Amino acid sequence: xxxxxxxxxxxxxxxxxxxxxxxxxxxxEVSLDRDATPGVAPKPAARRVLAGNSVQRxxxxxxxxARPRFIHDAALPGMLHGRVLRPEICGAKLxxxxxxxxxxxxxxxxxxxxxxxxxxxCQTEHGAEAAVRALRKGAxxxxxxxxxxxxxxxxxxxxxxxxxxxxDTRKAPSVRAKSRTMKRQYTPxxxxxxxxxxxxxxxxxxxxxxxxxTHSQAIYLLRADLALVLKLPVENITVEHMEGAGCYxxxxxxDVALDAVLLARAADGRPVRVQWSREGEMSHGPFxxxxxxxxEADLDANNEILSWRHAIWSNGHTSxxxxxxxxxLLAAAELNNPFPRRIxxxxxxxxxxxxxxxxxxxxNFPSWRIGDLRE
Length: 375
Fold this sequence. Notes:
By secondary structure, the chain is α+β, with helices and mostly antiparallel strands. It has 9 helices and 18 strands.
């Protein structure tokens, strides 16, 4: 039980650069044998500060008395508002941008363009919405990527280039004859994380230093990716976390953070708040990947499973910032000197897995082959 506790507690051991391993992977290289220390006494209950006591939450008073707690409700002194223009077709390039209609909108502070990245900075949020609508009327795009047929995602996934990996295989001589084979296919679709509130961030420049407020789930890794895009040392970037809408998955909090940083460059030191629209969240935010799963089972005359085969076609399941090039931020691929679009990757089984998570059977079948076929 003691070793099992250690295994569960230390399954993932991250290091700088988000390189991960586990004690089990290192067991052959590093001796984990240690003598037990006798006579260790647990802390007396009377000395416990947290365990066994009701600890007051820090966030409740603000939420009860309607004081700004979430990033969406926050306002910094002198704050401006920004909006980003993006194409209706993913991956399209901005070829022309007429600004004459935008200048007529009241309160426009700046129009920003860097390659295919374009946006506005305005005195008010209402003005920013009006300005980006006017900017869209003067924009022309080329290219883009067609969406797959949502009614036949399995065929689309199987037609893509793949990296094929055998996750696990087991062979055992069968003592019983196969009576029949059952086959099933399952196709989970692409899924929007759809947080209650769209993604939001605030940024403020001071010379060559920038301060960012964000509801990112990994502020240090986001800072590392921002350093790659901005070509700045990480010491010049301050990333401060604020609460935002819950996200069981990966929403656009990191992407809107870079949007805010890029627009704030044109604000002469004033903070800029950027919030995505619901439309933008649903069309440009990260999605949970689609999958095609095929399962086959050979059964004997008593319907006992003799052999199990599990094949998976899927995109990678991880596209969060991790400090490695290319940066995993949407606007990084839209700049005049763009970074390549980051292709989502799979975590290793030791780090929780990705498309192959939960693929290994929970039952002790005599024979199996678990194949993970990824884009």
